[in-house]
């Protein structure tokens, strides 16, 4: 098998494997917030059309609402239809950014060898080799998706918890939704966060 073909295939395989889930899931929270006191939640109904987001897509919004709602319900919270009756307001934002990844299929090889011989008076040899051989540089264009989920304390209108989920989007909407679902589940895995004393 041609070694260059094998290297390109390996790189593409690793790239595909890396896209199976979100590349980054971060959470932050207000340590003074009384999370066990939050029993109900409602989605704000806001969209980010004016902020460069993509939530003017009602189908996408409903799917993400279902994912987030499932996690909060599993944590014992109840969804209510009115923002005024909720302890937490849930807002989320979706963004997509065009990115580039540059990869080289070169086989770097430094100099090798060294001095050797029969004692200090008869050394021979030296360093030999090359700086590398073969190789191509390939630029991959891809899209990076970011999902931000905010929980706002309704009575104070203050942000108490935020999750940021970042991942490489594929050409399949089904795969992208699976990645979002996985990221949301990871973000809520440690919810509610322990209150600092």
Short description:
The protein is built from three helices and ten strands. The chain has about 200 residues and is an alpha+beta fold. It is elongated and about 60 Å long.
Task: Provide an overview of this structure.
The protein is of the alpha+beta class. The chain has a domain of 119 residues: Double Stranded RNA Binding Domain (2-Layer Sandwich), CATH 3.30.160.670. Helix content is 24%, strand content 39%. It has three helices and ten strands. The radius of gyration is 26 Å and the shape is elongated.
Q: Which architecture of the domain at 26-99 and 143-187 does the CATH hierarchy give at level 2?
A: 2-Layer Sandwich
Regions with pLDDT < 50 over 5+ consecutive residues?
1-19, 111-131
Strand order of the largest sheet: 1-10-9-4-2-3
Strand content: 35-45%
- Written as H for each helix and E for each strand, in order along the chain, the element string is HEEHEEEEEEEEH
CATH topology of the domain at 26-99 and 143-187: Double Stranded RNA Binding Domain
Q: What is the overall silhouette?
A: elongated
CATH classification, class level of the domain at 26-99 and 143-187: Alpha Beta
Q: Main β-sheet: number of strands, strand sense, barrel status?
A: 6 strands, mixed
Question: Helix content range of the residues, please?
Answer: 10-25%
Structural class: alpha+beta
Distance between the termini: 62 Å
**Strand segment count:** 10
Number of helical regions: 3
Rg over alpha carbons: 26 Å
Mean pLDDT: 77
